[in-house]
Amino acid sequence: VGRMAVKPTVLKGKSYDWFQTDCLVTIVIYTKQKDINLESIIVDHQDDSLRAETIIKDCSYLIHIGLSHEVQEDFSVRVVENVGKIEIVLKKKENASWKCLGHPLENHNSFIPRKDTDLYYRKCQLISKEDVTHDTKLFCVMLPPSTHLQVPIGHHVYLKLTVTGTEIVKPYTPVSSSLLPEFKEPVLPNNKYIYFLIKVYPAGLFTPELDHLRIGDFVSVSSPEGNFKISILQELEDLFLLAAGTGFTPMVKILNYALTSIPSLRKVKLMFFNKTEDDIIWRSQLEKLAFKDERFDVEFVLSAPTSEWTGKQGHISPALLSEFLKRSLDKSKVFICICGPTPFTEQGVKLLHDLNFSKDEIHSFTA
Ligand code: FAD
Ligand code: NAD
pTM for the whole thing? Predict the structure, then answer.
């Protein structure tokens, strides 16, 4: 029905094309890459402008168009992985034939290193806020219906608020709504909800402002960033997670993924460093998970415990690590993730090298 193709635009091998039916407009992006998935494409549609950013390795291919006709708010995104083709299907508001897709907007059809691109933000609504510890809360925000965005495991986004005319921006790592499947929110097929575990610092610049938002208020959320690759966990046998305080956040999705999607996995061990028992995020969930899944163990280490604490104490140290990092088999394939305050992570990485773990066996989450 009225299929109308324009000449494909070619730029360093990336190109796009479009065609239409009576009620749909389909934009096709040819990435010529095999490792493309729904995380590779970020689409924002606002008023009559469409912004589609395709992440190809360390580069970003941008389609940015002022559409010639009105379309409905929601759209769908499909990926044909084996040929690296992405399709964005827009719904026309009126069943008229379009003569052209629209006019180019800023940086349209550019293919540039991601480090040279500005972060793009969209406004998300605060849906819920729940106490987790005395100072840490689980925040849930909802992406607009006009956005397609999935945060890869181990990546973070930036949250932005404008406070008395000044923009404040800080990075946060999305988590799952829970560690235990029975408490998990039903995952919507289009991943509209993003959860964060965020510690509120009374004297902090950003977190008190975030905490002051009411349900229904808006916070700007950037496109994801990060260098962790989930593929590193393939065929893994032992996974060790070293987390301090909110450095636990990247571990949440890694832990869920490891226990559900790595058949070779024999053991996941989390060593979780906190000041006091009251500071431990999701302690009972972690204990329940360890009880239910024999592959998972958790060990809490406190740096400022009360006299009643009978568990491990102190800061990260050679003694704690050498006892903890025992392989389940002599030559098992291991991987270690570490995240926390900068001095914690730096000391930890140094200790891991001293214990003869190689660079390829360690991922440290840093700014
Ligand atoms: P800040 O203003 O940065 O202050 C933090 C604390 O330091 C306060 O107690 C403040 O009083 C004190 N302080 C500030 N300046 C000084 C100073 N000069 N001397 C002494 N003390 C000072 N956090 C999370 O809770 N959850 C996450 O998922 C998360 N993910 C992150 C991901 C990445 C990649 C990175 C880099 C950080 C992440 N963080 C996360 C930390 C987060 O980005 C913020 O740093 C944190 O929320 C503090 O922000 P703030 O502006 O409220 O506090
Ligand atoms: P916290 O102050 O409550 O400390 C938690 C534990 O960290 C302590 O019990 C101690 O064991 C260890 N620790 C703290 N300071 C240390 C030091 N100087 N040397 C050695 N060990 C030390 O932690 P928090 O307030 O929850 O802060 C968490 C930190 O993690 C923040 O700095 C945040 O920016 C960082 N973080 C980073 C990422 C990331 O880079 N991807 C993600 C989440 C959190």
Answer: 0.95
